[in-house]
Amino acid sequence: MVCSLTIFLKFITQQHKKYLEENFQFGGFFDIENGNEIPIPTRKSKENNYERMIWRKAIYKNMELLLGWKHDQLTKQEYWHLKITGSIHKYACDGDNSGLFTASEATTALNNLCSEMKIDKSKAKITGIELGVNILEAGFSVNEYCRLDLLRYKTIPFNWMASKGKKGNIGKEAILTHRRVKAYAKGDEIFRFEVHYDDMQDLRDLYNLFYLSDLSEKLIIKMAEDILPVAWNEVVTLDGIRLEDNYLPKGLSKKNIDILYKYSNSTRLLHIDDLILEAKKNDNKKEVARLYKENKRYRSRFDSLINIYGNQKHTFIFQKIIEVINYSKEKCPLSEIGVKSNNWTKSEISNADRSDSELINYNKSEDCITKINKMNNKLIEVSKNKRQSVKDKKEGKERVYQSFMKALNLTIRKLEKAQLNN
User: Fold this and answer.
1) Sheet-wide strand order for 235-237
2) Contact 388/382 with Cβ under 8 angstroms?
3) Average pLDDT for consecutive 10-residue bins of the chain (422 residues)?
4) Whose CA is closest to 113, among 256, 218, 215, 226?
5) From CA 112, how far away is CA 118, in angstroms rounded?
6) pTM value?
7) Distances 418 to 223, 351, 361 between C-alpha atoms, Å
8) Helix, strand, or coil here: 83?
């Protein structure tokens, strides 16, 4: 579930630094410039009076350990930091990440890592995380599927992704502002789907995920349920339809063929987005509304054609993602406290410990539940408002949804804390 992550510890002690240097083989100092490592003879060289951080690196069980040194010009003191990045799946399985990796196994591996590195989980800040699943024995050529069928994530085109340390391409990735969506082959029978967060802001807002101590088995499963199936649903594939004249499905009208060509081409889609932006700049509301409506209608038609004439591999992968998440859930049964319906009731928190005000304030939780119900009703109102444009509805739903998720997760955290102390 959690494939890899990056954690950062600021201001480690001299004792901790000494332990790391004695037990792990760190190399010499280097500076990072434009992504390249520039070796430094010694950090105290006269010509190298560094204002930014310089590093020493060690590799341990497929994890990259970076010791960072910085000299504060004002206080004239030296500070040491520790950064750990890599595949926790490979760390736990001796370099092999081709099997299933449950939330329970991930948390066990993280506990072992912290024990070996003498890391305090409450001080280890998570600065990047990757959620993913392996679809074992896919039953089709995964390499061919990645090469021919993967088109884009939403409107972002997939680009080829090179394999580390190997020649050739193994899959594709779509690069967004705060995350990357990757789909690739591990061999020809294992399909891998991942969502990699380079910026943690979204996850911090939704799940209050800051430190390793926050990353429980339940939270891993919750994030996987919320993120992976939705992300895969937003991946657009041709699903076996080939756009050569000799391979097009029989019986398609010229208009439907044009739709398949148009909406399988990411360049054309980006051009449509440019037309919408231009109409907005010119304050041409009618043209914006027309373009949105036409775009939505044709995209819907494209999806329908893929569902009718495609080979249903997209649906198969979606179902397998759900199965993997459910398998991980079976290995770590979730608490009875959770989202059972859109509306929460008082009975769902009746077992909470109301006596300890530091753990849970019943009145505040009650207010939070009321707020969640209001937000849910507001979402329905936004959907039914016929006077709003498509854009306004989308933005309104997004604002309501963000507020809804914050309130929901606040309630869940309070209830879980109360249950743990019962």
Assistant:
1) 156-157, 150-153, 235-237
2) yes
3) 87 91 88 70 50 83 90 77 93 89 92 93 93 90 89 88 62 91 87 93 90 92 92 91 81 86 80 85 89 87 88 91 90 47 33 32 47 60 56 61 66 62 56
4) 215
5) 10
6) 0.72
7) 21, 9, 10
8) strand
